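Hi team, as promised in this morning's meeting, here are the two structures we talked about. I've kept the exact order from the run log so nobody has to guess. The first one is mostly here for context; it's the second one we should focus on when we meet again. Sequence first, then the predicted structure tokens.
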Amino acid sequence: MFDEDELRRMSPQERIDLRRALAALDQHDMRASGSGERRRAIFLTLIVICCVGLAAWTGLLAATLPRFYRAGGWRGAWVGFDLALLAAFAVTGWASWRRRQSLIICLVVLATLLCCDAWFDVVLDARTSGFWFSLASALLIELPLAALAILGARRLLRMTNAVMRRYMGETGPMPRLRNIPIIGVVPGRPLSDLLAEPPGHPASHEPSAEHAESGPGRTVV
């Protein structure tokens, strides 16, 4: 067992190798299972079906909906939406105050609701006396707040991945967010292997040769 003095005498590279070895020993239970892959395949199939169905439905609506329509429940729709937006602001504030990881989800939901609010305000107020006020509030308030929320969620995701990479002993520049793989979705691949992949590297569904040779008696450091 290493004591603190021995750890301090190690070179930076030796400490990185030690982190990688400890991470590899602790991450054997984080690989994706066969059932997880089936759920992922079902989810992707549903996404494709929804995209095709929504595209067809959108075309049908564009061709058949009347240009003007008197809506019922107008007050309930907008009051209900604003209550949902208020709840999103409140939960986001709580998650930020308590420094919870759920803040990332809250920021994405808040940004989505703000964009929806801006869109419907502008579109439904077109050709009315309130159009310019709705457009100004969308451009100056709602959309900037949505952008700040998305940028905040992106920053938190990158910070979380940077901490994980550091504890796995990975060095080098942080990859782009779109190139960071989802942890636990590739069968036979431990967390340390996924984090070590270079940006844009395609995730392999086969265990790496290095991992296949690893075992309880293998010396890593």
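And here is the second protein, the one for discussion:
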Amino acid sequence: MTLAGARALVTGGRGFLGRALLAQLQEAGAKVVAPARKDYDLLREAEVARMFADHRPEVVFHLAADVGGIGYNLANPGRTLYANAMMSALVMEQARLAGVAKFVGAGSVCAYPEHAAVPFREDALWDGYPEPSNAPYGLAKRLMLVQGQAYRAQYGFNAIYLLIMNLYGPGDHFEPDRSHVIAALIRRMLEASETGAPELVVWGDGMATREFLYVDDAARALRLAAERYDGGEPVNLGTGVEISIRDLAVLLAELTGYRGRLVFDASRPSGQQRRSADVSRARTAFGFEAGVSFRDGLTRMIAWYREHRGTLR
């Protein structure tokens, strides 16, 4: 698909990944709209239909989600299941009815089975149940893949689905009730440094691993997929590199300047034990490879937070 001159609609375009994607789409010459949440309630069919009637997009990037870290997911399982399943179902259905040429769905690593073999291969997506702490969110994201494949089979609808690894970078969510592990640790380490706290507690035993993708790399991957990929099979977006939470915490302490003791609380949930993806399909299908090193990305993220923390809650 040629994005230059195309009318592109981005749900969740005011969010963390959405803002980075807008920059990519504008660079590609697309005519982009990113409605705010106050403009259209994506949980109401009539409002989703009105959004499509107002903007008449040719390509849709569906990024809108109700998502948080482990604590948020454990506290809001019903909300995360309902909101994410309903948003994707309504947005895709109205995109089909409006004659949208291409639908790009942002899936999540949380959709993978708890005990999937590492590195995660896309064909292992149905080999088991997701890790329980984020299963409602992960299953809602799986449903978007099923819907896209069903619509492709029945209606010839061009829906693609991308499984995005854990994101990080400037502009991430740092508020305690929503932040993921990197943003949460950066905030807490800087605060602990300023107060002289002798120790900092990290959830879990530190042995769990994660794979992290810089937000600008993820946005570039979405653009490349929209331009070059028309397949019905899901595609992982990541780096193919995993790091333990213990090693992550040590690295962040170095980069933030925190000198206290790190205490790992094994009584608190760690989530899935290992997460790392096979990223060969993205490289083969549309030429995507991550470009930002982890240390460089973390350094940029910390610098951004130091500059903007006074304006964040």
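Starting points for discussion:
The chain has a mean pLDDT of 96.
The longest strand covers residues 102-108.
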